[in-house]
Amino acid sequence: MDRSNKPSPITASGTGPQPSVRVENGRANARLPTGDSVDVLLYGATVVSWKSNGKENLWVSEAAKLDGSKPVRGGIPVVFPCFGPPPKDHATGKLPQHGFGRNSNWEYLGSSSSESGSLARGGDDSIKLDFGLSHAQLSEEAKKQWPYAFGLVYSVTLGKDGLQTMLNVTNQGKEMFEFQMLLHSYFRVDDVTRCSVNGLGSTTYIDKVLDAKEHQQSTPELRITGEVDRVYKSIKQDTTSIVQDGKSRLDVQRDRLVDSVVWNPWIEKAKGMGDFEPKDGYKNMVCVEVGAVDGWQKLEPGETFEGGQILKSHL
Ligand code: BG6
């Protein structure tokens, strides 16, 4: 993997509480003096905790495997290079559902105080953690299933005003490849039936629960009153918001990504997932997942793609 963009380490400046970064036991943790923090497993580069003022924003199943034996049920798994079960006649066709990004061991590339990106205010206000994955790091099985020379850098930036997660994909090989990507965020809510997902109005979506066909979102808000599995395509609005009891709970701002999946398994699907606990945990979560999943992103040799999200919590 090209390490030329490896960030420089955080240097302490000034007096008083400093931001801190700890990397141990396969996990990176960054903390700001404000009490905001983020935890990222090297397994899948999965963000498993993001706290604002000490309060958790993400939902992680109590039965989630955090030992690298299967993708984490909760947090923010990285879906790459295919979303859902890949079409058998596509180059990704031998890969498992959602690809290998979420169940590969990523490398920790380092941390820096971020001076670029919209969260940055300079100095001690934000910390960026970088993670890398390339073809050479894949399991032998995944290498055979998708034999392309790719390089991923996933940057997780913790700021006082939110969390930014950006995926950078580079084609380091000699032939074009196609991919999809998705940041599969599970957000924690008090009661999903008192929530709506706003900012999807006038958008076309595939309803995977109803008939796998296209529909049009007619209202500006989507209420979750049963199983939801929708792929919204080419969304015009920049921001999708989770609103609880009429108050903004969390904003998901897209950065160079125009698709979003909204998912809640509800009662029956939650019962069928061995790693979903408690079984009524579906009431306390909703997935709003930004990505590029409508068709395929083509990347020629030497080209780079970048896309991600900026999350703002109103806790
Ligand atoms: C969502 C998909 O992104 O992920 C759903 O739209 C899928 O169809 C869900 O059920 C969870 O997938 P998995 O592989 O983590 O169980």
Automatic annotation (TrEMBL):
Keyword presence, Cell membrane: no
Chain sites annotated for binding substrate: 73, 97, 102
SUPFAM superfamilies listed in its UniProt record: Galactose mutarotase-like (SSF74650)
First-tier enzyme category under EC: isomerase
Protein's UniProt keywords contain Isomerase: yes
GO cellular component entries: cytoplasm
Annotated catalytic residues: 184, 289
Entry's Gene Ontology molecular function annotations: carbohydrate binding; glucose-6-phosphate 1-epimerase activity
Function: Catalyzes the interconversion between the alpha and beta anomers from at least three hexose 6-phosphate sugars (Glc6P, Gal6P, and Man6P).
Name of the protein described by the UniProt record: Glucose-6-phosphate 1-epimerase
Species for this entry: Saxophila tyrrhenica
